[in-house]
Amino acid sequence: MHSMTAFSRIQSSFEPYELTWEIKTVNHRFLDIFFRLPESMRFLEPHLRQLISQKLSRGRVEVSLQLKAFQSQSLPRLNQHLLNELINLSTEIADKYQIPNDFGVHSCLTWPNIWENNDTGSQEVLKEKCLESFDAAIDELLMFRNQEGQAIAFLLKERVEGIQKHLKLIKSELINEPQRLRDKIKSKMELLVPGVVDEQRLEQELALLLMRLDIAEEIDRLETHLIEMNKAIENKGAIGRRLDFLIQELHRETNTISSKTDSKSISYHSIEIKVLIEQMREQIQNVE
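The chain above was modelled as a monomer; its predicted structure follows.
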């Protein structure tokens, strides 16, 4: 089991660069990936998206890369294409809105990514190091997602055991239900006709009431769903949707028990089961 909530941060330094990858994941119905990369590294995005898709199946993934370049032996050159775009855009805006064009030499020379490194070999090394450190960041992220997933699995197992205990107590209460209901019907009949109780009518009423209030099937289905829940918890794959389906079924069967029973004790246990189910639902929202 893996959590969808995790964070990893990897730093790497090599002449003349320092780079920092940060990857943050939170819960989401599908795999949703967002990148914040320097303009000069945007060409990596398709490859990075493919790498993430191979290792993650669900969650909102936010990836950022901070890249710092230190003093290099080779002289940089102007990004002529970007420079032309900036000058044309500033002129267009100034003409359109009839405002002074203050975009001067200083603005051009200090614009992000306006300088390019002449060292093609250095760029290849940068690309290689970026991908290498990104792999390390993904591996760290998976480790944290796995650790968080194990913690969630432990909590889910505790809740499953709690539900099983309440079901066991409900089943013990069912042993006394026929007699409790018989006494209840008999008491009502005696109120209507004091001193006279039609035993045949009493047994008919009891049979009808027992049929209407029978919750044995719901209990059987709950126990089956709990077995499936434990199997899913032990699964190492992406089982978040499977767990979500089982939670819905657990909730539905428990609601049916609550609506059928008129026993205060069984009603109490069904409420406690609902509380445990809601606690499980909150945890499952973070499961991949």
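DSSP finds nine helices and six strands in the chain.
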